[in-house]
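Collaborator request, handled under Task 6.
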Amino acid sequence: MGNGATTMMPGSIVSLRSRLWRVDNFIDDTVTATTIESTPVEHRRFYRPFETIEPGEIEDPDPDKVGNYSAQDLLIRAYRLSMIHGTAPLLSLQRSRVIAESFQIVPVVMALDMSVVKILIADDVGLGKTIEAGLIVTELLARQRASRLLVICPASLREQWKEALNYFFHIDAKIVSTQHLRSLERNIPPGMSPWEYYPYLIVSMDYAKAPHNRATILEHRWDIVLIDEAHNLAKPHQVSASHTVKKERWELGKKIAEVARHLILLTATPHNGYTDTYASLLSMLGVGAVSGPPHEPCIHRDIARKHVCQRRRVDVADEFGWDDEENPFPKRDQDEVFVRLSPEPEESTIKKVEELGKHILTVAGPEKSYRRKIAQWTVIHFHKRALSSPYALRRSLNNRLRKLNKKLDKLDDIEELPINEEEARAEVLDNDIGERVTDEEAGARLDRSVFGYVESLQKEKEIIEDALEDAKKITPSRDSKLKELCSNVLRRMLRRDPKVIIFTRYVDTLEYLEKEIPKHSHYKDTKIVTLYGELNDSQRGERLKRFESASEAILIATDCLSEGVNLQYMAAQVIHYELPWNPNRLEQRNGRVDRYGQSRKPGGEKKVFIRTMVVNDSLEAGILKVLVEKAKATHK
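Structure tokens returned to the collaborator:
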């Protein structure tokens, strides 16, 4: 055949680069072929003028050569298994370790009905979106409708996606990040890009949106783009056409959706209460499901329903007619625990924080100025810290006091605000901040957002010192919320089941609870385990094992645990020490235990118990009403 001058047919066997290949397709001078000997199975494209392509054939077995009996026995067993399982209509079920539930096949069938897959899988938390998406990807690869995959997800989920793709679907995906890039480049031919060489890649949203990386990603061909937690790439809510919002992630999502042949969007929380944000996700699919201006879109439900798989667990249970025993999902017992603050020193401390807030707004400048916007977020931030724990408040007040003293020492320094408006807004509203700044760093930067002249700075210093004096009086024995937690909420939960997860927004509050809970007589023998963002993956894994193996344990965690990690085998009870202001974040937290496969039965019941601690007659109580209304709008 020489350089491939002889006509090749798809399906014919050729010898190329000292290996046998099956020809899949050829267009002009490009040949696509699949290896038929050795592992792993590879799909490659070759440029015919540069290759020596010869006819190939598989040799018949030599009857004079006696083979290995054990290997022969394994081969026969493999054939038998292939005959048993090879009749399934879905190749993905044959080629994966997944034993799928019937409802998990639905999005796969929907996808196969499309000539080009464009689908939003918005099933409830815990229904198995990872399995559903993995089956679609495996099906497309097995049917040779795709050969290159890009997974985009939050940074905290990269390792989990790598493990899931490898274990369940035998897809060896590589993570691309600043720290992984050098090792990836060492293993490829000189001059090649990892983006081109590796067929299956995983990248975080914020790494992908960096200008250089974004340009590189958009240069390459992607057969399948899978975006997990896709709500993070949705367009922020716009009040009007003139209202400008930060659209970096949204622009990234739009552009990548345009270059992807097949697009799979995953999110358990597609709707944040605003129709325009939800519609932006549907518009990424590019199927004509949305029309009208971005701030006031019209959703065409007849088109959208063909590309959206969105089911609540109750829908699935009703569809399959499961009774309580058959239902693989637990029931949810969810309620608020209202805490009333003492007049002294708790309410007086809150009043001092409010006085500080009024002063900050007074010196911040005119309405709608940039400083004023940062000041508004700073004021709310301090209030939230005060409602979280006295320790968190004292840390923030001390941070601000140090910054004030530095500024008073160097009044001639140019004023630089340490945080931008987008980060300040995300930190206060419990939205995703991104990778450049952690939740804790954003909070510390808000603490240090100081401005004003010498007289106002001196006045603010006096207010802070006064507030600190009151805050110091809130000892653990006078902390109403801590007392309610230890004396009532935790005791009742541990009596029901010996494992409880406590979520808190702040590491400072986490440290406070870690120190104070064991001092209470009821928890002297209870193991306390903590999880927060600064821990690496191996440290997190080790701590989760300690929690799982303990006979009675409390896991105290920040929101680093709220996405992606499945804890349904470890616990069935959750306490939110503060009310999250973002309903999606609240649901993501609950979904760690309230999901398919929940095996624990607290008090003998197949239930998960969730309690949210709310400070009565405060900002939190008002926010709770807003969240309830928002939840109703989202459900509608």
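The cover message to the collaborator said: "The chain has a mean pLDDT of 84. The first strand starts at residue 13 and ends at 16. Please let us know whether this matches your experimental observations."
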